Each structure stands twice: as structure tokens, then as C-alpha cells.
Structures
1.
Amino acid sequence: MTRTFYVVLICAAMAATREATLAHHSFAAEYDGNKPLNLKGAVTKVEWTNPHAYFYIDVRDEQTGKVTNWALEMGAPAVIQRSGWTRTTLHVGDVVIVEGSQAKNGTPHGNARSVTLASTGQRLGAGSSQGQGPAAEP
Amino acid sequence: MRIGWLGIGAAVGLLTLSVSESVPVAQEAAGAGQPVAGAPAQGRGGRGARGGGRGAPAATESKPTPRWPDGRVNLSQAPGIKGFWNVASGSPIGPGGLPGNLTLDQVPFQDWARALYDYRRERGGLDDPLARCQPAGGMRFFTVPNGMEFIDQPELSRIFIIDGENRDWRRIAMEPGRQHPSEDELVPSYFGDSIGHWEGDTLVVDTVGYNEKFWFIRGGLPHTRFMHLIERFTRTDFDTLKYEVTIDDKGAYTRPWSGGWNIKWQYTNYDGSPGGEIHEYFCIDNERDSQHFAGK
């Protein structure tokens, strides 16, 4: 047993006891956990709405230079407020690093698991329903 | 030794994670409002109903079941104590609910109903009407988040149950001797025609007249227009509402069957801030998911 092993186990235990994030749809209906996202870009729009808060970022492909606008889903505002979010946490122009999963249909649409503000390093959970299983209640 | 205990705890957590993600049905949703490990046992305060958040009072034993001056049980707020029922999840099957809950394999499905249920599961919930912002019909009313309250109006012989989710509501007629309309007169609906009465401290509600446009639990247990629900609400202490339901649907099951779960009282707003009031949540406000739904 290595120290790393324990760290992994502890992280798994924390995940197991996290609060339900209560999406109104199952993660599997829309997203593919096998299509991980790790995006960096500037915020172009924020929607502080139900059933999900969204933000949009412009992501530049380093090889082609092409810029794609991604839509990223979070939990409902009332859910992610528990993680420290407010309506003004993100501003247009803020550069963020997003971890999450892409939509199954291959569009530039994803489910954010965490959002890191590049300017401060602050990392916030995004209320992802990933891991709840198809029938976790909404 | 210290790291050994950490390792044991983590392993238990890992096992929990493994189990929770392999449960077959709606049962992973069971245990509505059940405190998680390390959270205040009475559902007090906390961010959401689970866990200690800002402004959360120290966990104490629950207060007794509140009553109105005439002695009837009060199913909602008591004078000077705000809050609501944190209906966040729940299922009539599986180990997270009441002790007598059936397992999935004990549910008396008709063959077609089991096949449809398995198909819905295989599709990952893709076809769930609620995911397209349709109403949370039947008992699902008590599993969607955003808070629930009872409004008891004995002078009008009725009880309303209101949900923060889409601001839905149910009306329970309490007139003695009231009967359901005949089948020809009933207009199939998401919440049906409900008649209630008290059996001691338990509110018993009998409902018929459902449509078939909703899943009555997130896992996708099928039902038909013949569904008849008998629901029993018992506030066992201030912080706990025991919800028991009998599903009587000759169209989908071979016999009536029962299950239930506990619902916990929440003293804070849904986001964990002080207040204890339900809030507005309209799924339809900015529904962008269904355009991306896709099969496996």
C-alpha cells in the first residue's frame, strides 16, 4: 500500500459521500463519460438560469488556430451556490479551465465538472451529475 | 495505524461508490433526505438538506411532531419555525428507503412492464419525460428537488401540497364521504383525483385518474391508466415525514405492492442560506438538454 493509493481511495470515498447534484435528466442521456474535456478559454456569456446554469467559452485550437465556442452546463443555480458560486462568479472575458465531459452527439457542448479561474487559481465544483447513474433522482 | 484507519474509511467509501453506481433501478435515488455520513442527523441547516452549511445550528435531537391547537398533526411549518420538506430523491424500491422496500426482482412486474423498464434503463433515462420538463406525476412529485410544503385548510376540507419544482401542486379533497368521479368522467392527469382522510396521525390519500405521460419514478417503472395510488404520510417527529405508497396497477403489475422512504425537514433555503423558504424553479426556463439527447 502506497501513500498514493490511500490518496486515491480517500478521493473515491469523498466522491461517494458527495451531495446529490440533482440534474433533471440523467448524465447518460446527454453526455459521454468517455469523452473527457479539458478546455481553456475566455468566457463569452453566462446564463444563471434553471434547470442549469451555463457558461460559454471561446477555445482556440493551438494547431489550426480555429476558435470554437463551447457551451458548458453546470448544476442548477441553487445547487452550485452550495459550492460557492454566485451569479457574478464568472464575468465575460474571464479565462477559465474546465474539466468535464462532452455531449454524446459530438457538438461543442459539455457538462462541466470543475471550473478553475485562471487569474486566481480558484477551483469550483460545477454540480455535475456524472456518476449518479441513470436513475439517480433528479 | 493512523493511515490504516484512513485506508479502511476510504475503502468503505470506495465500496459505497461502487455499490451506488451499480444499483439497478430507481433505488439509487432512494433514501430521500437521508443524512449522509458526517451530516447533521436531523437534517437541520446545511447546504441543501445535507451537511452543515452556513448558518446551520448544531445538530440536536428532533423536536416532537408539531400539532395544531385542536390536536391534529401539523404536516408543515410550525409557528416560529420556518422550513420545508426536502424532497430531493426517493424510491419505493431498494435498500435506501423504508425497511420493507422490495428489491427490483421482487417487484411484481407483468412481463411487458419489466421489458419496458429494462429498455428504459438501457437507454440511460433518455426517454424520461421529466428530462424534457414535463410534470413530475404520481409519487415522483415527492422525489424532485426544490422543496415541498403542505397547506392544510380544514375549514375548506382540503389540503394542498405545493412543490418548488415547476411550482406544481396537488389538491387533496378531505370532504367526508367524497367519492372519485366515475372512470368516464375522469380526465387523465399527472396528479390524478385525490381524496384524503386521517387515520390517527397519518394522512391517507387515495388517487386515481392518472395519464400515462410521465414516469412515476426516475428509474422508469412503467404504469398504466389503471394506476391507483394509496399514499400514507406520517410525521414521525418534527424533522421526519414517512412516505408510504401502495401501487395498485392491474395494467402493469400482477398485484398491488408497496414501498416508501423518509423525507427530511430542511431549516434553510434550498441553497443553504438562512430562510427556510422554497424557491422558484421552472425547468422550462432554459431547457437546452433535450436537443443533445442521444442513445448509446
2.
Amino acid sequence: MSAEESGLRILGRAWCFGDDISTDALSPGAYAVAPPEVRAAHTLEAVNPRFAAEVRPGDVVVAGQNFGCGSSRETAPEGLKALGVGCVVAASFARLFLRNAVAIGLPALPCADAAAAVADGDDLEIDLEAGLVRNLKSGVTVRGRPLAAPMLDVLRAGGIAPLLRRRARGAGDRA
Amino acid sequence: MGLTMAEKILARASGQTAVVPGQFLTARVDAALLHDIFAVPVFEMLRGSGFSSVWDRARVLVVLDHLVPAPSVAAAEVHRRIREFVREFEMLHFFEAGTGICHQLVAERGLAQPGQLLLGTDSHTTTAGALGIGVTGIGTSEMAYVLATGELWFQVPPTIRVDLAGRLAAGVMWKDAVLELAGQIGSDGAQYQALEFGGPAAADVDIAGRLTIANMAVELGAKFGLFPADGATVRHFRRRNMDVDAFGPDVDARYARTVRLDLEELGPRVALPHAVDHVKPVQAVEGVPIHQAFIGSCTNGRLEDLRVAARILAGHRVHPRTRLLVAPASSQVERDAMSEGLLATLVDAGALLMPAGCGPCFGGHGGVLAAGERCIGTHNRNFPGRMGSPQAEIFLASPATVAASAVRGRITDPRRMLSPSPVWR
Ligand code: SF4
């Protein structure tokens, strides 16, 4: 299956962030039990107060090391997904954020060189399977490390939820 | 070739004799842990997917610890729904508000054993790695999958070995040791890896200290933070009427790297805003005024921690421009601290006593910070917005340093307040 067919190719504008963007920044504890739309509206407000209001569907978050460090809260990738973020590209991800992103079907790509090759607002094209980040503005392409096959399988399925429903129906295993 | 503790745990859980770092596998889970922030979405997803029971209700623990007692109507609704789910799914292990922080309960009540695999909907699930249990955090969707199937995929992590050597000096605690480690290897230094503690001084670390260290393993990015289950661990379980076997790595286990932590040289440490690995000796920030001091959390809310705090606060008052919040990690800790007279000492010093649970640790309620306020706490995270306003500042330190700072109203080296005789660590 090609990347287009599986939905693993993403087009969007870049929003750049630094290292160690925490789950507290992504999904502040104060809104832990607030309705999802309220929670999403506070996504990253401690780092970039404009982000939640101005991000557009398909936009790409580009960040440095250890993105999503901190808590296990799935509301961290969920907030990004709810705002329509198409993909997170980071030099590295905290383990729990990456697991959760995959589990809810939010594409993620570890790529050490993306931050240096991308500026805020650049138009990007991401190929998750090949691990490529194309900067359509500068014409530069950098290569990341695509996720391992079992994680891409979950992403392709749209996350854990459809797999679980399939399992409940006894219609086969998860991958 | 020998196996590390993490490799042994994942090999056993996947029914294999050996595994290698990088390998993907499906592991059978021995126990699962949910708390009040995340239980509702887990049960909703489980039910919504068509499941009406969990894979093994004797192996699932549900704890109300984060928002206790309910501080808002929204939180009360969450608790109500959890209690309903607990009945609907006929959960056997449900812990009401005020019983304690989930990680403390796993350790205190022997809810999993050395060598087993326990997954929790909380990053600090790593805490009970102190007892040689394979414990780590996952998100709510994955937890729904675990509750439905009793299994989950894993990638075997490489292991970093941390050799502890020497003895802690007076006034220095195990919290200082793990903060020092965070400063040295960084908040992503153990990303996708397991930390395994060993070396000549590992056996000297009491269970409370091991829990503090393993708790913060996740602040270094680690999947597991494991201490071998040794004589002290076996005795810990025996006091709970459980017989467990010692459990540790093979002597010829292969490590990605080895880090040595010298305790001899170590003084009190403080993590400065806004990163857990932004660690400095306490001298570097002494005198910084603080508005709030917090003693508690799954990192440092145990009896041993309250003893140290009470020893420093005895005969003193919390500084008039500072408030001190104390939240015991569990009702058992609270009870023990009561009978030892520690709570009376703390309250006499002006501490505000909070219910057993997470307290102000994550900014959900009771003790949130205003913009421009500064807090020093014994907990484990100081990211912007962690305890309320993103414009507040959080310093992390040992119970000794926090207690001393509460008395002076400024960040204070606890060694200045050492009475000549007692030595603690
Ligand atoms: S005490 Fe703090 S770190 Fe521990 S479980 Fe509660 S909120 Fe999380």
C-alpha cells in the first residue's frame, strides 16, 4: 500500500517549538477533567498562547528533543489531534507521548534535522513511511527515522480504538 | 548471554527464555492500575468497544487519589462515574478517596510482586520498580486494550546501569541523589531505556529511598527504574504476609552503558524552574524567597520523609511570608505519622495538613500557585503550569531542604538546621 492510500502523507504549515515540550504545556493539569474542547483550547498556551486559536487542520508541529515529556496523559496528543494537527515531527519523543500518539492515531515522526530545516509557517510535506520531511518553501528535504512497522500498523488502522472494536467482534487480531 | 532485570521481566511476560533490546513482543500483564484522572475514558472506551468485563478483575486496581476530596462539581462527577464503573465491571480492588496515592498503595499493599509486569495510567507508575517489579505507565487507549485483553505490545529497552557508591552525608537524602542523576544524564538521558540500580551502595538504600529514586526514573525518560529485589525487599513483602523470591539481573547481563553515582561527595540538590534536569547544589539558590513549600507526593510523601521534616520543623514556625502544605502519601503513612507524633509537630510548626493523596502536586486543586509565586516542593515535576499559573516557579528538593526553606521563608541548605546528633538519609 502506498503512503497516500494509507493516509500516511501529510501536508501542512509548520509550528516550531523547542526542546522538552512537556505534557503540562500540551495539556495543563488544571483542565484535566474539563470538557475536551476546553482542554484543547489551552494546548501549548504556556509556550505559545496563539497556537490553539490559530493552528489549522493539517498543520505540523516541529520540535526539538524529548517532545511530550512528563505525564502519561493521553490528552496531550489528543489536544493536538482535536485542533487538527496533522503530524508531530520532533528530534526525539518521550516514550509515553509517542505510545499515546500512535494509540490515538496522531502521526509522529522522529527527525533530528527537521528543526534546523524548518521555520514557523513554512509549508511542509511529510512522508511517514519513508520518514521524509520536505520543506516546500525552501525545497530542502531531511530524513528522519520512520516508526517501526508495528507502530505504523496501529497508525494505519487509525489507532487502538478500531483495533479494540475489531477484537471485541472477534474479527481477528489487532494487526 | 545474561539478561538485565528489564529483559527478564519482558521475557517472562512474553513466555520467552531470552529477549534482546529493540525486539518487539506481546507481553501478558500481571496487574493494571487506574486512577481518577484517567479511569473514565478507559472504561468508556472499553464499554464503547463492546466489552462488558475486564480480562481479570482480580488484577485491576482503581484508585481515587488525584482529586481528593472532589474539589469541583466536574471532579465529583468523575468520581461518581468511576464508582459506577467499578460496580458495573465488578472491580475487586477499589480504593476510595483518602486511601492514598496509587503508586504508594502498590508498594504498601504488595499489589504486585518482583519480576511481574504492572501497567498504570500514570507516568510515575515506575515507582514500584523499587521493589523489582516491572512497572511503567501507558495511556488510556492502551489501558483499555490491556483491560480487554490482558496484554500489550512492548519494545525491549536497552538498560542503563547506575552504580551507587559511597554513603550519604548527614542532611543529604536519596532525593538529592536522584536529582543529581537527573542533572547528570538529563531529562531524556534514559529515553526508551530502562534504568537499573546496583553497585556497592544499592543495598544501603532503604525501601522509601528506592521508591523515591524509581519514582523519578521517568523524569529521566526511562521506561523502568528497577532495584533488585534483595533481602530488604523480601522483608518488605513478608511484613505484608507475602513470600516473594529475590530477583535481580544476571551477573553477565549486558548494559547499554554504566553510570556511577558517588554519594560521598553529594550535597543537597535543587531542580530549578522549569526543568527537572536543571539541577544545582542548594548553595546556588540559597536565599531565594519562596511563597509556598510542599511536602508530599509519590516521590516524598512517606513516613521516612515526614520524620525528616518533623525533625527540622520541631520547635520552629513556618516563616510568616511562607505557607507549608503537607500531604501524606497514604492513610497508612498518615496513621503512622500520627502515632509517632509527627503530624502534631508539623501542625505546631504551622503546616497545613492535607488529605492523603496527590495534594497540590499536579495543580489540580488545593494549593495551586498564582502568577509570580514561587514554590519549593518534594515532588517530581516543575514544568511551567504544573501547579497552577504558568507564571509561577517551582523548585524541587528533598524533604529536608523543603522543611528548612519553609522555616526561613527562603531556599535554605538543610545542613544549617542540623541538630548535632541525628543523622538521616
Ligand atoms: S503525587 Fe503527583 S506525581 Fe504522584 S501520582 Fe499524584 S500527581 Fe502524579
